[in-house]
Structure to design on (506 residues):
């Protein structure tokens, strides 16, 4: 299992153990984590699974694709040049066994 | 059996619902249905209509249980078997064939300039028609049609062709009454679109551009899929932006304080757009079919049940939206279901946002001083599977 922590404004944290191969978005949506919507089901089409990855994990992330890149300019809360990612494009496991993200205040 | 099935309720029947009532104003009907149960069997429609936000959202995200590949689909007959009536993995192949044509980067680099030009053209047409003119037929409809014509790459057709094709094939898709005249007009457009595709593909191979057909011309996609997906896109890419322009403009003119707010801060046109599609979803209902016996929010459904996923009702669910029947750009932001969700999330979402909220509405209200409803002629809204303004007479200061 891999571990992902969703940090919310105000300090609440959702910590989940999920199967390797699960995206951040899917982990959040199937476990009812507040603040992650995932409207398009994981096609990098909607920018409603935006997360800010905590700095200590940035080096472990996959590269940003062209599709993700343009969609990161469409997020409801401002894009952070280093930390913003689409949750549907980051898959847990395969070297990314532990991850912590901050949930934006808004997705729409 | 499981606890779920033993406690599940049978489906209530809503025999009081009529097609005519839905067409005139579906929202009081949806409210009554939603208050009674999340799902009803509706004899007049021949479907199980699903009216709560929770159930519609569940269905969208479970294609294993709720298939888009419906048997006896009117849409398949009217337009062919497009990606909208396929499940993954078949759906995904078709969806990927659209590439990046409808995505934000292409919109910024290619389409926004075209939207501006088309908006100017049809704003001139509306001005020439003069105060008292119909905003839909003079501006919203030709604007949406000309945008779509160029995005799709129909260089051998006119915006009027696009409007006729869209309306006649949509009428076929909704031909529950099985009216033979509707099928005749729908089939004529079906054949005209096939001919137009066949004619334009060789041209686009020699003269490639950023359009959908240009991209498809170079791809190993079966012609049958191209034809069906193009027809679906004609039906899904014209009436809807037209109807959002109409409903948003109507709602703003009906609510002068909100209109003043938007005029003072044009960034709020984006908010008005989202609120307009929440308030009156241009596509109010779409079909799904159960692949097995299932329980939806406590209601027992058989296998093969033909569902109507009524996102027009889900978007007014008071469990999610406060004072849901009101148009209010200042409401708390919540995700609406107007673009659908999951793998069938509308491929044209960003085109709609850019062309309507980014261009059509700000140019309209910016270009015609004191644009307002014409007090001499009533505006008319109609429809339920597809809903919008059928007539929106406006006036302004010259």
């Amino acid at each position: 299992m891999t571990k992902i922590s969703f940090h919310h404004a105000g300090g609440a944290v959702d910590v989940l153990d999920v199967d390797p191969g699960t995206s951040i978005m899917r982990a959040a949506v199937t476990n009812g984590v507040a603040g992650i919507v995932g409207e398009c089901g994981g096609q990098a089409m909607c920018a409603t699974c935006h997360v800010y990855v905590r700095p200590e994990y940035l080096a472990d992330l996959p590269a940003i694709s062209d599709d993700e890149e343009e969609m990161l300019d469409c997020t409801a809360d401002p894009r952070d040049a280093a930390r913003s990612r689409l949750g549907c494009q980051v898959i847990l496991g395969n070297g990314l066994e532990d991850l912590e993200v901050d949930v934006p205040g808004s997705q729409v | 059996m499981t606890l779920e099935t033993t406690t599940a309720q049978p489906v209530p029947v809503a025999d009081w619902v009529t097609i005519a009532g839905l067409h005139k104003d579906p929202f009081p009907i949806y409210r009554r249905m939603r208050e009674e149960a999340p799902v009803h069997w509706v004899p007049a429609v021949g479907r199980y209509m699903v009216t709560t936000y929770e159930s519609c959202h569940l269905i969208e995200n479970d294609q294993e249980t709720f298939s888009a590949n419906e048997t006896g689909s009117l849409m398949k007959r009217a337009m062919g078997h497009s990606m909208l009536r396929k499940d993954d993995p078949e759906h995904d192949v078709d969806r990927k064939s659209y590439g990046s044509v409808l995505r934000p980067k292409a919109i910024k680099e290619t389409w926004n300039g075209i939207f501006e030009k088309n908006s100017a053209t049809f704003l001139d047409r509306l001005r020439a028609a003069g105060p008292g003119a119909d905003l839909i037929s003079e501006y919203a409809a030709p604007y949406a049609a000309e945008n779509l014509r160029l995005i799709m790459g129909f260089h051998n057709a006119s915006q009027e062709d696009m409007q006729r094709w869209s309306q006649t094939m949509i009428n076929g898709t909704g031909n529950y009454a099985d009216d033979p005249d509707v099928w005749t007009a729908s089939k004529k457009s079906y054949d005209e679109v096939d001919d137009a595709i066949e004619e334009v593909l060789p041209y686009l191979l020699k003269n490639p551009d950023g359009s959908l057909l240009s991209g498809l011309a170079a791809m190993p996609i079966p012609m049958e899929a191209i034809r069906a997906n193009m027809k679906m896109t004609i039906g899904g890419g014209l009436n809807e932006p037209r109807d959002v322009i109409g409903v948003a403009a109507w709602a703003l003119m009906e609510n002068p304080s909100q209109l003043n707010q938007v005029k003072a801060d044009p960034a709020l046109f984006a908010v008005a757009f989202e609120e307009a599609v929440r308030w009156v979803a241009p596509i109010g209902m779409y079909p799904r079919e159960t692949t097995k016996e299932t329980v939806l929010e406590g209601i027992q459904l058989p296998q093969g049940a033909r569902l109507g996923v009524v996102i027009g009702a889900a978007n007014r669910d008071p469990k999610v939206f406060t004072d849901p029947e009101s148009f209010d750009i200042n409401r708390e932001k919540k995700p609406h279901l107007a673009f659908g969700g999951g793998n069938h999330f509308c491929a044209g979402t960003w085109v709609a946002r850019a062309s309507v909220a980014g261009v059509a509405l700000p140019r309209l209200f910016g270009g015609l001083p004191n644009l307002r409803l014409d007090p001499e002629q009533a505006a008319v809204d109609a429809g339920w599977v597809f809903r919008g303004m059928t007539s929106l007479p406006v006036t302004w200061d010259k």
User: Anything to note?
Assistant: The radius of gyration of chain B is 21 Å. Confidence is low (pLDDT under 50) at residues 1-5 of chain B. Residues 287 and 380 of chain B are 26 Å apart (CA to CA). The longest helix of chain B spans residues 180-206.
